[in-house]
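pasting for the record
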Amino acid sequence: MHSSSSTLLSIFSMKPKDENTLHLLDLNKLQRQANIPTQFMWPKEDMVGTDGVFNEPLIDLEGFIKGDKIATAKAIEHVRTACTDHGFFQVINHGVDTDLIQAAYREIDAVFELPFNKKLGFRQKPGGYTGFSSAHAERFSSSLPWKETFSFMYRGMNSHSAVVDYFTFTLGQDFENAGLVYQKYCERMSELSLIIMELLALSLGVDRSHYRKFFEDGTSIMRCNYYPPCKNPGVTFGTGPHCDPNSITIIHQDQVGGLEILAGDKWLAVTPRPDAFTINIGDTFMAFSNGIYKSCIHRALVNEERGRRSLVCFVSPKEDMVVRPPEDLVVGSNRVYPDFTWSSLLDFTNNHRRTDLHNLENFFPWLLSSQPKVPT
């Protein structure tokens, strides 16, 4: 399973698509067709079926946040087990208001419901991180994901009105309220990410604040996903199998479902819970932990009858932050990964290689070859 996906996702076209090509990828039109375009079809060997439901315990953050020793010990145990196995867990009682989550869905629905021509007006540019994308067609030319995305940046707790400004500048004054909602949503995601960082540190046996300090002024990418209905869901993915290159990913999925993780060589469906966020360990945190914690392999399926939405926050440190594990996790010279900056890995996965199951092992040879040669 791993090898086929790795081979499939290793190369992608970096040629920018023109508007005529992009018009052919209007998923609102394509969803009504019985046969989907070949660009969306994935090799049969990658269409491995679901083999069960993810049923590991939810992690209740309320006791941890309040400092309850028993609840903290239980949360630490669950996180340690999950992250050494498959890099995925779910949290409840996280402090994010349900009304805010639902408001975020309502506001982003209005963006995805805009006419396709309008959305192309703020489309994501090749090499960029923000704006609208239909099937990531500005980057890829085959094995396209069956989804639309809208992405924007959030820089720590000092962003003030940056998200509001982005919405009004990009979408117009009519979307000021959407910007206000997402400004608040991103602030809650930043707060939650710092709680998660403390929990991860304790579960690894290092100082509670060790990771938190790297992320207080970090840069996150907020991505809203819409997966339209697909009349032939057995030949495509909403998102193909991959690991995230960032540190952790905080996801809320609506009640349609479709998120799956690979655990014990089985694809397990993650049952949607309106009161839960899913947490994926990414490649950067795997390096921060000296390889002790695993980057989560996951994918998203599409639904034949219903559209699906998800809210995804990719949490990362500052771009120039040097990624290295604490000394407590390094025995002698037992470093699993060399030092690197988050900006270099972001550049690699965004501009040079499609994310797959083996991001880091492909990244380091590229990093070594791209560094300036020192004269001898």
